[in-house]
Design goal:
Structural class of chain B: alpha/beta
Helix content of chain B: 40-55%
Number of strands of chain B: 14
Number of domains of chain A: 1
CATH topology of chain A: TIM Barrel
Shape of chain A: globular
Oligomer: heterodimer
Order of helices and strands of chain A: HEHEHHEHHEHEEHEHEHEHH
Strand content of chain A: 5-15%
Largest sheet of chain A: 9 strands, parallel
Strand order of the largest sheet of chain A: 5-4-3-2-1-9-8-7-6
């Protein structure tokens, strides 16, 4: 069982996302262990991309800030290596295919394995194109995370059969960002996944409050929180570590309270 | 070869949320491309509404002055709405209608594709929303007003470079929120499969007509077909019929802006590298970390950091040649064609004219060049005036 799948054992996992290098590398480096200490079971670090088409405005702007600040893929690899010396929390990179492709797929995955990245989320790599990375990831012991969406329907079976680590279950149509309510039948999506695989299923897109986190955790194996955290980073800048930690803690409590 | 691939290029690199939408489109297209009723209706629209076939004009004065190959202009600028864009849009909006959609969305750079989409939407009673980079809404203000007159809603895009690439991003984002009643009418031979194939098929009428018309007037094939390339739909349309005719040189003209050695250019084949973006594997202007470059061209329609995947393959195999043309050269050709033949071309098309002006004198008098005049220049008059330092109020 991979380190990522293990993070779901005996608990409903809280997965938190931040954009690497926003507002700067030093702050990201502090945020990762702080979020782990506050209750995050897995942490996604976004490698900023100039044109993140699956993202809403909050994460788009974070990517822009990071890129303007000069953040590069190499800086994030070095940062992850430093984090790994103090924290064992499972780490994932989230980025688009082009930064990986242009860096060199083999070189990218080798660096991931060297510095201790456990998983990879690539929103513009659907099932039909996963050959681009699947074998390389397998060889380097990095879980390539599959995504399912409310439009996936019969594709869920196809996707779930080959899923690794966990399945990223997109809660709603549209792009990332905070939503006031989630109307998709998450329970049904998760049930469909469970018919074909034991790989855990975590729900993301639009989850911002402890109550939402609790109700999504009841229906699935974990909850992914991104834009709400990135908003706090935008608001507090370099001083975001404490407010983000408090927020992550409150989300964890929301999940625990709902799923005891 | 894998589905939707042109050699190594193409593919479907899009979020899972959109996969159902592109698969639904692919299925519908596979059905309707062989459906006689659909093809008949499209043909009638092209003839009675768009004004096809477009003329193949012998530019006699230009030929005489340049002193070399015979120059013909394929007059896509004479189509309804003033460019080749209408060919593809009539096809896609009709397809959307058959698929039961009630709303179309589209991106636009210079506004030609936006105006064409708004036009077809008005004709076929569809709701229409257009995404256009804020910078482009300013440099092409007249086209924004045109789209609004036609009943479309225009969204100025303020993210990123506020130009065509960001308009594509925004249209894709919009599509992920609403697929059931909406089709993304893509403007060029780009994006995820099946778009590059669909758009090429709807544009290949250009090359087909060129072949028929030139055979009729000259009794032989042209020696070269020249077209401008942003995403590359007018070029793909002009080239397609000739890919299997090795004697015909195919030449795509890329926007080199201030020059290929200056960062302000949009010459994808000259300066780009293979990557994956906007749903396709192709060549893109980008940095060493895969960040898409903020490209530049005087023509909003060529101001795009990528090129359609079929062009990428044609370039790799050497079947087509891609050459950079600067802003200066394009503006010069814009004025030259206006004065010499009384035809004001789109500044996009002027890139192709500029290269023809270089090539023709080096060719023999019995040789023939066909330049695809993809659009008319009304929309660019103010921009050219600004370029030349003339204060002109629209």
């Amino acid at each position: 069982m991979s380190k990522i799948t293990k993070a779901f054992e005996n608990r409903k996992a809280l997965i938190t996302f931040i954009t690497g290098g926003d507002p700067d590398i030093e702050t990201t480096e502090k945020l990762v262990p702080a979020m782990a200490a506050a209750g995050a079971d897995l942490i996604e670090i976004g490698i900023p991309f100039s044109d993140p088409i699956a993202e809403g405005i909050v994460i788009q702007e974070a990517d822009q800030r990071a890129l303007l600040g000069g953040c590069t893929t190499d800086m994030l690899f070095a940062m992850v290596a430093r984090i790994r010396q103090k924290s064992g929390v499972p780490l994932l990179f989230m980025t688009y295919l082009n930064p990986i492709y242009t860096y060199g797929k083999e070189r990218f995955l080798t660096r991931c394995a060297e510095c201790g990245i456990d998983g990879l989320i690539v929103p513009d790599l659907p099932f039909e194109e996963k050959d681009e990375l699947a074998d390389l990831c397998e060889r380097h012991g990095v879980d390539l995370i599959s995504m399912i969406a409310p439009t996936s329907e019969e594709r869920i079976t196809l996707i779930a059969k080959e899923a690794k680590g966990f399945i990223y279950c997109v809660s709603s149509l549209g792009v990332t960002g905070v939503r006031s309510e989630i109307t998709t039948d998450i329970g049904k999506m998760v049930q469909k996944v469970r018919e074909v695989t034991g790989v855990p299923c975590a729900v993301g897109f639009g989850i911002a409050t402890p109550e939402q986190a609790g109700s999504m955790a009841r229906l699935s194996d974990g909850v992914i929180v991104g834009s709400a955290i990135v908003k706090l980073v935008a608001k507090f800048g370099k001083d975001c570590v404490e407010p983000v930690s408090e927020y992550v803690h409150s989300m964890k409590k929301g999940i625990d309270a709902a799923t005891k | 070869m894998k589905k939707g691939r042109f050699g190594n290029y193409g593919g479907q690199y899009i979020p899972e949320t959109l996969m159902r939408a592109v698969q639904e489109l692919e299925k519908a297209y596979e059905f309707y491309k062989n459906d006689l009723a659909f093809q008949n209706e499209l043909e009638i629209l092209l003839k009675k509404y768009a004004g096809r076939p477009s003329l193949l004009y012998y530019a006699e004065k230009m030929t005489r002055k340049l002193g070399g190959a015979k120059l013909y202009l394929k007059r896509e600028d004479l189509n309804h709405t003033g460019s080749h864009k209408i060919n593809n849009v009539l096809g896609q909006v009709l397809l959307a209608k058959r698929m039961g959609k009630t709303r179309v969305i589209a991106e636009t750079g210079a506004g030609q594709h936006g105006v064409a989409t708004a036009t077809a939407a008005a004709l076929m009673d569809m709701e229409c929303e257009i995404f256009m980079g804020k910078e482009d809404t300013e440099r092409q203000a007249l086209n924004v007003f045109r789209m609004e007159l036609l009943g479309a809603k225009v969204h100025p895009v303020t993210s990123g470079t506020m130009t065509l690439k960001d308009a594509v991003n925004e249209t894709m984002r919009e599509w992920t929120t609403r697929m059931d009643d909406t089709l993304y009418v893509l403007g060029s031979v780009m994006g995820p499969h099946p778009f590059p194939t669909i758009v090429r098929d709807f544009q290949k009428v250009i090359g087909k007509e060129i072949k028929e018309q030139i055979m009729k007037t000259e009794g032989k094939l042209p020696d070269a077909v020249i077209a401008c390339v942003g995403g590359g739909s007018n070029a793909m349309g002009a080239f397609y019929e000739f890919i299997q005719e090795p004697s015909v040189k195919l030449i795509g003209c890329e926007a080199a802006g201030l020059g290929v050695d200056n960062p302000k250019n949009a010459a994808t084949i000259a300066n780009g590298a293979v990557g994956v973006f906007h749903g396709m594997k192709s060549y893109f202007c980008q940095d060493e970390y895969g960040q898409i470059a903020p490209v530049y061209s005087i023509s909003a329609g060529l101001d795009y950091p990528g090129i359609g995947p079929e062009h990428a393959q044609l370039s790799d195999t050497g079947r087509a040649q891609y050459v950079p043309v600067t802003d200066d050269e394009a503006v010069n050709a814009f004025e030259y064609l206006s004065r010499t033949e009384g035809i004001i071309p789109a500044v996009e098309s002027a890139h192709a004219v500029a290269y023809a002006m270089k090539l023709a004198p080096a060719m023999a008098q019995e040789q023939i060049i066909v330049v695809n005049l993809s659009g008319r220049g009304d929309k660019d008059v103010a921009a050219i005036a600004r370029y030349k330092g003339v204060a002109l109020y629209e």
